[in-house]
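Checklist before submission:
- one chain only
- standard amino acids only
- sequence pasted in full

Submission:
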Amino acid sequence: MKHQNPAFEAIKPNIGSSFTLLKFMRDENIKSQFWHYHPEIELVFVCGGSGKRQIGSSISYFKNGDLILIGSNLPHCGMTNENTHNEYEVVIQFRPDVLGEQFWDAPEMQRVSALLNTAKSGLVFGEEIKKKLAVKLRDLIELSPLQQLLSLFDILNELASTKDVEVLNAGTYFLHTQVEDNERINLIFNYVKDHFREQMTLQEVSGLANMTVPSFCRYFKKITNKTFTQFVNEYRVIHSMKLLAEQPLSITDICFESGFNNFSYFNKTFKEYTGKSPSQYRKEFSNIIE
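Returned file contents:
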């Protein structure tokens, strides 16, 4: 799938509701794979399955489903496709001012307000809270609009109370920059997504951004807190993790399929990122290799 220009996604609330609630069964949300952003905060629960997630400059692999909270205007790709093999996916989207600008200032909402502020960098929740909220998220679609709203705030309160959470993008991130920066960095991210199996040069990528190589390197590091090489290697390693866990390819084939043209460098980079060799990593997931 080719990724086009960065996309702003216009979101409409459900009829009779102040927010959007969607439930997709397996293979129904394929269109979400494009790189996009929106002012609405987004809570995503993927029941079962495994795959790649990209939220901002964070690229990672999930297994046994996922539960993430994406802050306003934080660019991301959908996580499910025809290879994810998830049972279903629940997506909740609501504007920061869903109940008025002063709503989050109420003393009762301070903890949730802090959660949503942290979500500007993207949050992924662990197994414990994911299991605790699975049924509530699954059955949300069956409730009346008012019950859905009340249940949403109950869910957010649970998420705000757990320590079973990880911030995906450390430090400042490009969502806080100007619109032209968003468009430029999104263009670069899309290019990496389309060409990570190929050998990319700083000259061609900096040309896409209409910058000199030194200026581009400084710019990319400032915006993402990573060098361009680190970002590309991370993307390739995450892709290889997915293949190691899900496909019966040889490790050598996975090395080249993931864009590495040197097996020793692949092993070294993989171990730096995961703390394990590719073969050790595969053994941990031998039960799900197809």
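Reviewer check: The two ends are 23 Å apart (CA to CA).
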